[in-house]
Amino acid sequence: MAKRENDSFSIQDLMQSFIKENNLTKGMHKIKVEETWTKMMGPGIATHTTSVKLQNKTLIIQLNSSVLREELSYGKDKIIKMMNEELGDELVTKLMLV
């Protein structure tokens, strides 16, 4: 009976190599940004958020409340900093609230 080689890889490593080989990094960043926004801002703000998009390092947040949009505009720099810390990379440089 032939001896079996025991090359074990973690699922995380396999997924990262698959994403890198198939040029899916940009799409995965977009998904991660949406999840991070919902997680960071909580259910109160998430219910008023209609769209979260990442385009060329600009995070575009569409809100259905003008009052909330105004309140969040005062803390844009803090939101950008918190998002980048949570994402673990400098993905967001500008925040647009529409």
Keywords:
single chain; 98 residues; 4 helices; DciA-like; elongated; 54% helix; alpha+beta
Structural summary, described in words:
The protein has 98 residues and is an alpha+beta fold. It has a domain of 51 residues. Helix content is 54%, strand content 17%. The chain has four helices and three strands, in the order H-H-E-E-H-H-E. A hairpin with a 2-residue loop joins strand 1 and strand 2. Helix 2 crosses helix 4. The termini are far apart.
Short synopsis of the structure:
The chain is of the alpha+beta class. It is built from four helices and three strands, in the order ααββααβ.
- List segments where confidence is low: pLDDT < 50 over at least 5 consecutive residues: none
Biggest sheet architecture = 3 strands, mixed
Structural class: alpha+beta
Principal-axes geometry comes out as elongated
Total of DSSP H or I helical runs spanning 4+ residues: 4
Helix content class: 40-55%
Order of helices and strands: HHEEHHE
Q: In total, how many beta strands?
A: 3
Gap between N and C termini: 66 Å
Mean pLDDT over the residues:
83
Provide the β-strand percentage band. 15-25%
Radius of gyration: 18 Å
Strand order of the largest sheet: 1-2-3
